[in-house]
Specification:
Radius of gyration of chain B: 30 Å
Largest interface: A-B, 124 and 139 residues
Low-confidence stretches of chain A: 48-53
Low-confidence stretches of chain B: 150-218
Oligomer: heterodimer
Largest sheet of chain A: 4 strands, mixed
Strand content of chain B: under 5%
Number of strands of chain B: 5
Shape of chain B: globular
Strand order of the largest sheet of chain A: 2-1-3-4
Order of helices and strands of chain A: HHEHEHEEHHHHHHHH
Number of helices of chain A: 12
Chain lengths: ~350, ~600
């Protein structure tokens, strides 16, 4: 056991000496922060209610259904309706920047309302304006449907109430957290392959084998170091996210799941490096193999990404727990198998 | 550089890749590729999303809200029961036909919002089966995107719109009120066209319904539900297809370069008559060819044109160039992996995140992928945007190779040093005279441009009150570092005498060099980036000088003074450099702040 710890410590020391892992962590942080800033920015633009009413949108309303549409527009968050008598007056107002959008609403004989919307092009405001108009016009559509309900065979369902929830809430859990959980796992496997490949290319592998150590013990030592660093990184992310108001529901289980996957990727990397003599090819086999494995795993009833998302957001099902148990089992079995196989391969 | 030698080395390099793979490796590679080939179509068919069932709704099978829940990926139905929400079994519970119990958490509210939009979509699907189309979809919308005001975007198209009537509308005003088209799409009964022709003209162009109003099957085009804000996510995914294979290429490339450095394997090549440039060009050529080889078929498959291929190719050049430098600096494969991941992540972020805003915001133009996105969407080619997207990337790639060539020699190649020390060596290598310092400053300007564009891209959504000071500070830091880091490297590697006079001369050279190189930042004018508050703060300095001579001289004086300050510090020690650099940054910040508040 002691000799394995020595190997693990040696690997960690080399990572620490090179200090690049710090760089890699900093980069992960930077990217996460960058994407979060963008998403927060988008959320505040798309769903003004969620971020306390960001940009106010002024809408010029005209046409014979204007008296109908105006109050609906006015009813929206951070929206204001300005009435114009003629279409040309409204367009002039738009060009002068008095209003951000123009709606020309005409009632047709069929009872339908035709709305000609004009929005500014080529600026960030476009997105805001269009998404607000969509909300207002949808509300207007519901109101008109209710007024014409006698002409319908089936009635639309009433919408659930609005409580200021954001449909972008899920982004953190379904995209950011799975990405942050799998990136360190993948890197761990990759540097495990590097480590063994380098020993072989530099010729130190034979030295290591001449030490009083079995091959499985060497695999243990190397795996220990690389498996350990991934959950530590992920735990840091979870702590950071919790501080930022995105609580992780099953932190220990999620970390356990990540550890199991890391274990699989790390032994996969070591196996690739043992099976293939050259570093470059070993890396290729490992990357493609990991990619294929993730792709295949995505076909499960609950993909690994989905399991992490469900665990983190706290919406687990029986399948989630079965997948989790399966991952642990495959992790242990895969590890044991690779350990034995490594002994065989290295001896041939 | 002799083309014959370059080609021979390139042939060796390519041959080494193919020839040395043994049978076991080949079988393993083939197996993994087979798995990927089998899995990909299945993935495309089933399209799993990571967000499946993250929100749980307690709803009875017989409840009308069960249908919208069942039809939505992110929602999963759980059996109702006493206190489903209180017990944490569900996030929202539907009680009867109109009662909703919502968990008091961000998740509960998000679940309710998701249920709301799911119900909206369900209603649209339900209404699509109605006979009376005018009552089922009582509102139709046409959206025209009109450029307004007197803002002139001096881009390649040059459609300077005057304040009269807006030009450049994305959707036609006429003839897109295609009621009949709508019903035909949703598979309901057609006909019943009584009175559905509108003031906007008959539905003559029914087949070409508004391109921007892309609806899914549930929400017919031209209804509010079918409105989508411009957000070219699909094109972005296509663009992603371009960049992914580059990772494999740079992994192999970095490995190959580092290979040369292990056990002095590259020595025979170094002592051969081939020059360093021959060797590096020869080693790079096969990988550049591989990048081109994967880019062209993908471009053909997704319908992108020559401009896209060129933009991606130049991006690939930068990927390779940075990997080359990384492989020259790394001490081990592990370190190389970190460097490769860093390169990938940063360049992907630079390429992707701004491209999300293609068509929404001029900031998108900084990314080479925006060229691809525009190309796929069939937008007209913009020379200004193309130049801004490609020139910084291409020049930065060239500079990386230049720096790498400087240290591609025996004494640097086979020594182990810490990464920053190696980087300083690379910076110091070309500094053989004071004049060279100025030239190197000019060469670093593309990196300054990329970093500043990145800063602007990161901060443009932040309110201007916070963003402008932050951008000013970042710009000061980036520019001062770019002006002085190689001066420090020169002193450290004893390229120059540590005298005050030398330091002042170096500061002058670096300052003048930066002043001239800074004119590259004028590229941002091409796409109207400087019209942004944030963009103006970052790039305003380069544009000064259109007015009086004093304004022209001010940036020159600033750059010379601050470069001299940091050079004087760099002359002494690392600590002296750090302190002097901080001073120079503050000086620069003060100047920038004054300029922005008085001029802008």
């Amino acid at each position: 056991m002691d000799s394995r710890l020595v190997i693990a410590r040696r690997e960690l020391a080399s990572l620490r000496r090179e200090k690049t892992i710090v760089l890699a962590l900093a980069i992960q942080l930077f990217v996460a922060a960058f994407s979060s800033v963008l998403v927060v920015g988008l959320v505040s633009l798309y769903a003004p209610g969620a971020a306390g009413g960001a940009v106010a949108v002024d809408v010029g309303v005209t046409g014979d259904a204007a008296g109908d549409l105006g109050p609906v527009v006015e009813h929206g968050d951070a929206m204001h309706a300005t009435y114009y008598d003629t279409e040309s007056a409204a367009r002039t107002g738009f060009q002068h920047g008095d209003v951000d959008a123009v709606l020309v609403a005409d009632r047709l004989n069929s009872g339908r309302t035709y709305v000609d919307a004009t929005v500014p092009d080529g600026s960030f405001v476009t997105t805001v304006v269009v998404s607000r108009l969509k909300t207002a016009l949808s509300r207007y559509e519901r109101q008109r449907r209710a007024e014409l309900s006698t002409r319908l065979d089936r009635q639309p369902l009433d919408l659930p109430p609005e409580r200021g929830g954001s449909t972008y809430h899920g982004f953190t859990y379904t995209v950011l957290i799975p990405a942050l959980a799998f990136l360190p796992a993948f890197i761990s496997g990759s540097i495990a392959a590097d480590s063994v490949a380098e020993e072989r290319e530099r010729g130190t592998w034979d030295l290591l084998r001449s030490a009083p150590l079995s091959i499985p013990a060497i695999v243990d030592g190397k795996a220990l170091a690389f498996v350990a660093i991934a959950p530590v990184q992920v735990a840091c992310w979870f702590a950071l996210l919790s501080l930022n108001g995105a609580p992780i529901h099953n932190p220990l289980t999620t970390l356990g799941f990540v550890t199991a996957l890391t274990g699989l990727l790390v032994v996969g990397g070591i196996a690739a490096a043992l099976a293939v003599p050259k570093h470059r090819e070993a890396q290729l086999v490992y990357s493609f193999g990991a990619l294929g494995a993730f792709g295949a795993a995505s076909l499960l009833p609950e993909s690994p990404q989905n399991v992490v998302a469900r665990l983190a957001i706290g919406s687990t099902t029986t399948v989630t727990w079965l997948t989790f148990a399966g991952a642990l089992l495959i992790g242990v079995v895969g590890y044991a198998a690779t350990r034995v196989a490594a002994g065989r391969v290295a001896n041939t | 550089m002799s083309p014959r030698r370059v080609l021979r080395i390139a042939r060796w390099e390519a041959g080494r890749n193919v020839g040395t793979i043994d049978r076991r490796t080949a079988i393993l590679l083939a197996c993994t590729l087979l798995v990927i080939a089998l899995v990909t179509p299945a993935l495309v068919l089933s399209a799993p999303t990571p967000g499946e069932g993250v929100y749980r709704v307690a709803v009875d099978d017989a409840n009308p809200y069960h249908a919208p829940v069942a039809a939505t990926d992110r929602l999963s139905a759980v059996p109702p029961g006493a206190n489903a929400v209180e017990r944490g079994r569900a996030d929202v519970a539907v009680v009867g036909t109109s009662g909703f119990v919502v968990a008091d958490s961000a998740k509960g509210r998000a679940a309710l919002a998701t249920l709301r939009s799911a119900t909206e979509a369900y209603n649209d699907r339900l209404m699509a089966t109605e006979d009376d189309v005018a009552a089922a979809f009582p509102v139709t919308v046409d959206v025209s995107y009109v450029e307004r005001g007197t803002r002139v975007s001096g881009s390649g198209g040059g459609t300077a719109s005057d304040a009269g009537d807006g030009t450049g509308t994305a959707t036609d005003n006429g003839g897109t009120t295609a009621d009949d088209d709508t019903t035909a799409d949703s598979g309901a009964t057609t006909g019943d066209g009584t009175g559905t022709t509108t003031a906007a003209g008959s539905a003559a162009s029914a087949g070409t319904a508004a391109p921007r109003v892309s609806g899914d099957a549930s929400a017919p085009a031209n209804t509010p539900g079918g409105l989508t804000p411009p957000f070219p996510l699909e094109s972005l995914l296509l663009a992603f297809v371009f960049v992914l294979p580059l990772n494999v290429v740079i992994q192999s490339y970095g490995s190959s370069v580092l290979d040369e450095r292990i056990d002095r394997r590259g020595e025979p090549l170094l002592v051969s008559p081939a020059t360093r440039a021959d060797i590096v060009a020869g080693k790079t050529l096969p990988y550049l060819a591989a990048a081109a080889l994967v880019t062209v078929p993908i471009a053909y498959a997704v319908g992108a044109g020559v401009a896209s291929v060129l933009a991606v190719f130049l991006l690939a050049g930068l990927f390779l160039a940075v990997t080359f430098l990384g492989a020259l600096f790394a001490r081990s494969y592990k370190e190389l992996t970190f460097v490769t991941v860093t390169v990938t992540v940063v360049l992907m972020a630079y390429a992707f995140v701004p491209a999300v805003f293609t068509e929404v915001h001029p900031i998108a133009a900084i990314s080479p992928l925006s060229v691809v996105v525009r190309d796929i969407r069939g937008d007209p080619f913009q020379l200004g945007g193309f130049l801004l997207a490609t020139v910084p990337v291409a020049t930065a790639a060239l500079v990386c190779y230049g720096l790498g060539l400087g240290v591609y020699r025996e004494e640097d190649l086979f020594t182990q040093k810490r990464l920053p020390a190696k980087a300083l060596d690379a910076l110091a290598a070309p500094l053989t005279s004071v004049r060279r310092v100025g030239l190197l400053t000019v060469a670093l300007v593309p990196f300054v441009l990329i970093a500043e564009l990145f800063a602007v891209a990161a901060l443009f959504v932040v309110p201007p009150d916070i963003a402008v000071p932050l951008v000013l500070a970042l710009v000061a830091i980036i520019e001062e570092v770019a002006k002085s880091v190689h001066v420090y490297a020169g002193f450290r590697n004893a390229r120059f005498a540590r005298s005050t006079r030398t330091a002042l001369a170096l500061g002058l050279a670096s300052g003048v060099g930066f002043f001239l190189g800074e004119k590259l930042l004028l590229l941002t004018r091409l796409v109207g980036l400087s019209d942004l508050t944030v963009g103006g703060a970052a790039f305003g300095n380069a544009a000064l000088g259109a007015g009086s001579l004093a304004l022209l001289a001010a940036p020159l004086v600033l750059h010379v003074v601050t470069a001299s300050v940091s050079a004087l510090g760099a002359r002494r020690s690392a600590r002296g450099y750090a302190i002097a650099l901080a001073g120079a940054i503050l000086l620069h910040l003060g100047y920038n702040y004054t300029v922005v508040t008085t001029v802008g």
